From TrEMBL:
It comes from the Bacteria. It comes from Amycolatopsis methanolica 239. This is Oxidoreductase. InterPro entries: AKR, AKR_Detox_Biosynth, NAD(P)_OxRdtase_dom_sf, NADP_OxRdtase_dom. CDD domains: AKR_AKR13B1. Signal peptide: none annotated.
Length: 296
């Protein structure tokens, strides 16, 4: 697959007026990877290689930091001055203490500070896309997001944010947010073998021209015979099959695989050109007893 390594081979999607390749990159692991000791030069090399290979959508957050690393600082060091077409998506909501623990949901005033923090760290005068993260990685948020999303909508009006998204949410949150300001993306945990209850949500987002941006598309998956067999048939890795499956879930689905390895990065971007047949997709949908199209 090496001859076609380009993030553009899976096509593009509009985040509002911003065009992104559907295969992107998630920067969290650069700062929070294992013991947090990923080599700094390697992290910078991964980011630069991502852009070389056509990645123009990078997901990050000011709270992606460890005692030794900040994802935003690495992005700025590696890529600023930024390519014109690069879209950097950040997220705000929870804060993180220096010991890494998450702080309670931010107040509207704290959200403004978080937006300003991201702007400062990335060295920009505004943010392209900001997700309001209301739940945790494990749990979808509960309750209303109106106050917090309304606060971000005001920052959008002020020009500090171009487009808004929401993260760790359900369809009820999308409806609530859309009534306040346009939503360009939903970012939830979702993958071949995780959170398939969001199948219908992916389609609902597609109907509203909202991007669905799953995280842990690779990391959530335990090794599985069907995935491995299909990978073998294509001469690719199971991670590539999981990413390709993700991109086959709808044109509005954007991938943001994270890695601290240039080799894995190249594999992941190569998966943008991996086409799975209907028969293979049906086999994959049967993995772990999932019934195709169930969508509870
Ligand atoms: N909104 C939210 O609440 C939220 C929560 C979590 C994450 N996110 C976003 O989602 C992005 C993706 O999440 P993620 O990075 O945790 O999960 P991921 O992309 O599903 O998986 C990353 C893990 O898989 C490994 N990996 C990557 N490519 C591989 C390959 N080709 N072969 C084998 N292993 C591979 C990585 O290790 P190596 O480094 O060794 O490759 C890492 O351990 C994050 O960067 C972040 O931007 C958002």
């Amino acid at each position: 697959m090496t001859e076609t390594i380009n993030a553009g081979t899976a096509g593009t999607w509009q985040l509002g007026d911003l065009t992104v390749n559907r295969m992107g990159y998630g920067a969290m692991r650069l700062a929070i990877s294992g013991d947090g000791r990923l080599d700094r030069d390697q992290a910078i090399a991964v980011l630069r290689r991502a852009v070389e290979l056509g990645v123009n959508h990078i997901d990050t957050a000011a709270f992606y930091f460890s005692p030794l690393r900040s994802a935003n600082e690495l992005i700025s060091t590696a890529l600023n001055p930024y390519p014109d077409d690069l879209v950097i998506t950040t997220k705000v909501g929870p804060g993180r203490a220096l010991d890494g623990s998450f702080l309670p949901e931010a107040t509207p005033e704290q959200l403004r500070l978080q937006v300003e923090e991201n702007i400062g760290q990335l060295g920009r005068d505004h943010l392209d896309v900001v997700n309001l993260r209301i739940g945790s990685t494990l749990d979808r948020g509960a309750g209303s997001l109106a106050d917090r999303f309304g606060a971000l909508a005001e920052l959008r009006q002020e020009g500090l944010i171009r487009h808004l998204g929401i993260s760790n949410v359900g369809p009820e949150h999308l409806a609530e947010a859309q009534a306040i300001a346009p939503v360009v993306c939903v970012q939830n945990q979702y993958g071949l073998t995780v959170r398939r209850e969001d199948d219908d949500f992916v389609r609902l987002c597609a109907d509203q021209k909202v991007a669905f941006v799953p995280f842990f598309a690779i990391a959530s998956g335990a090794e599985d015979e069907t995935v491995t067999a299909i990978a073998r048939d294509h001469g690719v890795s199971p991670a590539q099959v999981r990413l390709a499956w993700t991109l086959h879930q709808g044109l509005n689905v954007l991938a943001i695989p994270g890695t601290g390895s240039v080799e894995h990065l190249e594999e992941n971007i190569a998966a943008a050109s991996l086409r799975l047949s209907e028969a293979e997709l049906a086999r994959l949908d049967g993995v772990n007893g999932h019934e195709p199209g169930r969508g509870e």
